[in-house]
Amino acid sequence: MAAFELVRPSTVEEALAHVKAEEGAGVVVLAGGTDLLLDLDSGRSTPKKVVSLRRLPWRSLAWEGAGLRVGSTLPLRTLELDPGVSARFPALGEAIRAVGGPSLRRQATLGGNVGRAAPASDLLPVLLALDAEVELVGEGGARSVPIDGFLRASRRTAIAPGELIRSVLFPEPRPSAYLWQRVRPANDISQVAVAAAYSPSRGAWHVALGGVPPRPSLVPASAQALVTERPAPESIEHAARALAAWPGLVSDRRATEEYRRELVGVLLRRAVLRASEATRGAP
Ligand SMILES: Cc1cc2nc3c(=O)[nH]c(=O)nc-3n(C[C@H](O)[C@H](O)[C@H](O)COP(=O)(O)OP(=O)(O)OC[C@H]3O[C@@H](n4cnc5c(N)ncnc54)[C@H](O)[C@@H]3O)c2cc1C
User: Fold this and answer.
1) Residues 6+ apart with CB under 8 A from 81
2) Residue 221 is part of which domain span?
3) Atom of ligand 1 nearest to the CA of 114
4) How far is the CA of 200 from the centre of ligand 1 (A)?
5) Which atom of ligand 1 is nearest to the CA of 121?
């Protein structure tokens, strides 16, 4: 591992001064470190300075009306163990439990997963289906970016130089489900994954796909086919066919295109049935 300076600011102002735009690629930020430490160790990342966010007051979880705001450095395990989170955002609980084992989730943070923007992230399809908003903060102030606009490409996001992710907002509870497929469930990443959520305020479904490069994506044609809160079997079939026809389902070293097209229909049917069953007891 190449030498670098480690700084551990305890105020947001101090942290922002360290990551300010003009320092560019020489600075990286560290949250839980589950991704970043591997990059440093392998030499994929060779920064001059590493800015730890662990002392910042961002390990927070707050209800804002019906919405949930999660501080970017809150460990996934804390989110997982909160009974209100899984009750109101079932797909989020399911996606968190898909990330490694409990010891990894004690370190890994939501902000780190979002900042990494990996194509096979388990959390990002769910954030898309739940219409999450990413709050960014820089020396010029704060701004909020819908997750769909935040994700640009594989490992590329809308974070501008000098900005940090402060929090993620989930605006409303949604009956929802997240299902994935892996070769080795315990220690692999998803070949394909589907998140489905029903928005009571919009009267509409959201369907998102994960595990396929370059980034997790919403699939509106599939969501629109679902039509009602508890879709009829023929609507679900239509939505499954629309999802399987999505052009982004390509072959790579983890799965063939044909396998993925077959599988997404199966995952979608199960996810919609599970989520629509939950609408009976929705909060
Ligand atoms: C063994 C293993 C298994 C894994 N399994 C899965 C899995 O099944 N599913 C899955 O989705 N992921 C998996 N991961 C990936 C990883 O655990 C997650 O991406 C994790 O959530 C990253 O969070 P972190 O706090 O550790 O981020 P870090 O490693 O600290 O940071 C990750 C990236 O985000 C940036 N970053 C972090 N915080 C911020 C911030 N507040 N503002 C701006 N940029 C920021 C960092 O600079 C870095 O580039 C696995 C990782 C390992 C090592």
Assistant:
1) none
2) 176-281
3) 34
4) 31
5) 11
